[in-house]
Structures are given as C-alpha cells and as structure tokens.
Amino acid sequence: MEKSYPEISFDNTEFAFEYKSDKQLKKAHFLFSMMGKPWLVKIGTRLAPWSINAGLPVKGIIRNTIFSQFVGGETLEQTAAVASMLGKYNVQVILDYGVEGKEGENNFDQACEEFIRVINYAATQPNIPFMSVKVTGFARFSLLEKLDTIMHSNEGSLMKRYLKAVDGLSKEEKEEWQRIRHRVMRVCEAAAAKKIGVSIDAEETWIQDPVDALTILMMDSFNKESAIVFNTLQHYRHDRLKFLKDSYEAAVERKFILGAKLVRGAYMEKERRRAVEKGYPSPIHPDKENTDRDFNAGVKFCIDNIERVSLVVASHNEYSNLYAARLLMEKGLPLNHPHVHWSQLFGMSDNITFNLAHAGCSVSKYLPFGPIKDVVPYLMRRAQENTSVKGQTGRELGLIKKELKRRNP
Ligand SMILES: Cc1cc2nc3c(=O)[nH]c(=O)nc-3n(C[C@H](O)[C@H](O)[C@H](O)COP(=O)(O)OP(=O)(O)OC[C@H]3O[C@@H](n4cnc5c(N)ncnc54)[C@H](O)[C@@H]3O)c2cc1C
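Above: query sequence and flavin-adenine dinucleotide SMILES. Below: predicted holo structure tokens.
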C-alpha cells in the first residue's frame, strides 16, 4: 500500500507562531524592522562590542532585544524554559555553548568541561538530542591555521596530509595538538556514553582541513553503530560536494556512519576578502545559484545513501528543506527517518521549523547560550545576516505581518 504523507506548507503562520503571544510577535516585528536598516546594523555591530568592552550599561538593551530573540539564556539552566516551550510543539534543540574567540589553555580546558556539562544536561532532557561545538573553542586558532597551511602544501588524501602535517610540528606544538585531540576526544566519549550527537561546526576555510581530519577520526571511533559525531560541510565552497563524496567513501571503507550537517556557509564576505587580499582563488562559489545547486545535490546524495549517512539539513532555505522532505516521500521513507534531521537557528524561520514538526519531521532549533558579552560575535553575525530587506529580514517580516493580520483582521 502507498504510504500517505501530510501536506507540508511553509506558508502556515498559525503553526509557525503559535508559541508567540501578540506582544512577543510585535516585539519580533520591531526587531526585524530595525535589522532591515543597514545603517543601523552597521553602527550597532560596531558599537555593541565596543560598549560592552568599555563597561557601558548596554547589556539590558541587548538582553531585551536581539539576545532574547536569538539566544536561549545566559546559562545552561536558563535554556530550560525555551527548550520545554519548543518541546510542546515537537521541536527539538541543538544546544550551543555560544562563547567564541577565547584563547588560552585555561579557557580551552574550561570550555571542554562546559561541553561535557552540556552533554550530561542534554541527556536528562526529553528533546535535546544534539549539542554543537567549535574546535576553536578547544584550540589555538594560529595552530589550526599553521596545520592547515602545512596540509595544503602536502599531497595525497586528507588523512595522509594531516598525519604528515602533525609530524612536521615542533615538540611543543605536537604536545599542544595532543591536548586539543584529548579535549575533543573527551567530549565525543561523553556524548557517546549518553547517546547525544556532537555537531562540529565549520568555520573559516583556512583552519578547516585539520578540523575535518579530526572530525573524521572521531567519526571513525564513535560512529560505528550510530551517528554520534557530525561534520559540517559548507556548500558555498566549490570543493564540498566532492568532499562529501570522499567522506562517504571513507565511511564505507572504514565502516562508520557519516554524520553530515549540510549548511551553505556563514563567512562568505570574509572568505572572499581574504582571498583577494592574499591573492589566491576564492574558495567560494561565484554566485548563489551554484551554492544552491551544490547544497541541494548534497542533500540528494545523503538521502540516496541514507543507510550510511546521517543527515542534518541546517538551513533556512524553504526549497532545500522541502526538497529533503520530498526526496524521503519519493523513496517511500518515513519523514521521521532516524538518519534525517532538520534544523534552523532559534529566532529565525519559525515557519519552516514548526511546520516541519507539525508534519512529523525530526526538527530542531539551534539554541545558543552564554553570557551576553561572550555571545556578541554570534549576535553580530545574526544581525548582519538579517540586514537585507530582500533576504531573510524580508521573509521574517512578511510572515510576522501575515500572522499579526490573521490574528487581528
Ligand atoms: C542549524 C544551523 C547550523 C549552522 N551551522 C553553521 C556552521 O557550522 N558553519 C557555518 O559556516 N554556517 C552555519 N550555519 C549558517 C549557514 O551556513 C548559513 O549562513 C545560513 O543558514 C544561511 O543559509 P541558508 O541555507 O539558511 O539560506 P539562504 O538564505 O538560501 O542562503 C544564504 C546563503 O547562501 C550563500 N550565498 C549567498 N549569496 C551568495 C553568493 N553571491 N555566492 C555564493 N553563495 C552565496 C551564503 O552561504 C549565504 O549565507 C548554520 C545554520 C543553521 C540553520
């Protein structure tokens, strides 16, 4: 008998904003309207970090506006209210300890302990199946950059280039790298013990090769029976579709499940700027169409190989999210297939998240938490990404207006 599937529509604003009161919806409307003004965002993204560092009393304003829209709380415990509210609508959570850019061995050790605390906490909650980490939370950026540079000058497979690069480090650097590996290993071990997924974020291309190598090594150790560790592949890079296929080949050969979180990529301007400044070819696709084509091809590749790949569609793009659902339907697979998960950032694209959840898909909000001063880089990225009235802000505003009108005709 043919399987029947529910209709999925991202236009349903009633489901999308069911969790928001009129007052909360109006506040979101105000916030996205403000973010639609590029001059304001330009000033705000410069002024906010400076004001916080200078000790000016701006935390209250930030807490009540952009922070409450995009962040789950200042502490792990404060995320509980948001997580339980999302749970009521069958929406899950990817917890993200959002502290960025802290260097120093003490900070790296502390971050490692915090990640393990997040895992232990997630294991006690009904709807927190994943947490996310950034390797730069455990590792000196310049050491990652050095390894990446050496890897680029070596030939052969990613693993061969990685082993050779580590071999070429000084004694002190080798010890430092050992400590980094140990931290990542401890987090993955804790996650495996509690069956919580660890999604390793992708960052700048000039540190990504060692991050990829480390992540694949972790998958080889922890993903034998189920997907615990997930790598992130940025499809604005023109080499990522091939990398996805290579990672799959490695998974087949080494008999592990490939955890693949697919994103388009968050650092496009920075990447292009650096390529021009340093005079190398840009690693980024020349236009959005190419990024979209590769992203959707990546989704298809993962679903075509769903026995061996566990996919996270991490996107606000309506077509790509729906495309993943359609591919499952075409294959007669359940929408809550254990190897397919969707995720959107907290505070954005509720129309996608809540409608997917309503259709029975396994879907989450990526929920950062951390002290205001430490999550500022994350908040500034959200503000910048939401500046274009033609882009995300336009979409968000349109949906909020539609729902306000539906509620108050
Ligand atoms: C749950 C989740 C986790 C994430 N984790 C990460 C992560 O670990 N690392 C990371 O880098 N990002 C991450 N992101 C952000 C993501 O990479 C995108 O920046 C963001 O989601 C916007 O892309 P989109 O697929 O949602 O939608 P869209 O709005 O359809 O696409 C916008 C994206 O398309 C690409 N693009 C836009 N214009 C062009 C152009 N002219 N040429 C080429 N490409 C273009 C850019 O990547 C841009 O961000 C995450 C996003 C989500 C939802």
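The first strand starts at residue 92 and ends at 97.
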